[in-house]
Amino acid sequence: MVEYQHSPVTVSGKRAVVIGGTSGIGQAIALGFAEEGADVIATSRSEEKVDETATEIEARGVETARITCDVTEPDSLEAVRETAVEELGGIDVVVASQGAISRASVQDITDEEWDFVTDVALDGVRRVTQAFAPAMDEGGSIINISSLTAQLSMANLPAYTAAKGGVEAFTRAASKELAPDIRVNAIAPGFVITPQNADTYAEGTEKRERIDERTPIGRVAEREEIVGPAIFLASDAASFVTGEVVTVDGGFSDSAF
Ligand SMILES: NC(=O)c1ccc[n+]([C@@H]2O[C@H](COP(=O)([O-])OP(=O)(O)OC[C@H]3O[C@@H](n4cnc5c(N)ncnc54)[C@H](O)[C@@H]3O)[C@@H](O)[C@H]2O)c1
Asked: Model confidence over 20-63: pLDDT tens digits?
């Protein structure tokens, strides 16, 4: 019998890599992990944003490294893996939070638009798992950021919706192959305010009012509200949780009215 001693809901002492970690939800997760005592490398394609986020991580007294990556290029993910192993001494947690979106109808979407979205949002998730899993230690945790749209369809987002459905199916598939050493889960956020969509969801807009009204918690989420579920999935408290999708949507998706 295992005796309960203290809450294992912590990432303190873990070594994490956050892909798409210099903006939006990924950045909130990277800074939240650092705040809780994890060493964190937050990466994206922009050298300037990598540097800014690394400076914020360092200010929290933990280790980091500065490296860019593009999830459409497997070599760049491998370079991040090597940097994490060298600079942090290993990898316990990987978060795939990179994003790409294209608004077009099913009828009008072009091959280029479809491929752009799925290359980043779905193939990118696969490449992240392929690149990092071989270097992850026992007790490792991969967290893929999906979306409510994987379960609830929306007009004019066919590639994004299909990619996120694929992310959830891939998460389940990978969780079977990587067990028992590495757990693979997804978080499906609902409507979250990030710098990119702050105008779309601005208070007073019709869209914002409709979302607030339909959401049992009565509002859209702040990006920091995705951090707690990520800490749980990354932590040893989730040691028996794998292949799951944690929906973080204020009750939106199962609210009848
Ligand atoms: N904001 C929301 O309401 C919401 C809701 C559900 C799901 N999501 C998902 O959350 C994740 C983060 O989205 P966000 O809203 O924080 O957006 P964001 O644009 O702020 O963050 C996306 C990050 O991905 C990086 N990125 C884009 N293409 C990349 C590439 N080829 N290689 C490496 N990095 C790349 C960007 O530089 C950025 O750092 C995405 O997967 C998105 O689909 C967001």
From this structure: 999 999 999 999 999 999 999 999 999 999 999 999 999 999 99
Which residue among 29, 43, 44 is best mutated to probe the pocket of ligand 1, counting the most ligand atoms within 8 A of its Cβ? 44
Across-strand partners of 221? 192
What CATH number corresponds to the domain at position 80?
Answer: 3.40.50.720
Per the prediction, the chain carries an average pLDDT of: 96
| Distance (Å, whole) CA 196 – CA 37 | 28
Containing domain of residue 228, as a range?
Answer: 15-248
Q: What residues contact 44, with CB distance under 8 A and at least 6 apart?
A: 19, 20, 21, 22, 23, 26, 50, 68, 69, 98
State yes or no: is 160 an active-site residue.
Answer: yes
Per annotation, catalytic residue among 33, 132, 160, 252: 160
**With 90 as the cut, is the pLDDT of residue 160 above it?**
yes
Domain count across the chain? 1
230 CB near ligand 1 (under 6 Å): no
**Residue 98 Cα to ligand 1 middle (Å):** 4
CA 5 to centroid of ligand 1, rounded, Å: 37
- Asked whether residue 2 is assigned to any structural domain, the reply reads no
Q: How many CB atoms lie within 10 A of CB 15?
A: 25
Q: Does residue 154 lie in a domain region?
A: yes
Quick count: other Cβ atoms within 10 Å of Cβ 20?
27
Say if ligand 1 is within 6 A of residue 96 CB: no
Counting from 1 in the atom list of ligand 1, the atom nearest the Cα of 197 is 1
Residue 191 lies in a domain: yes
Chain segment 196-249, per-residue pLDDT in tens: 888 888 999 999 999 999 999 999 999 999 999 999 999 999 999 999 999 999
**Is 1 among the domain residues?**
no
Given this model, what pLDDT does residue 86 score? 98
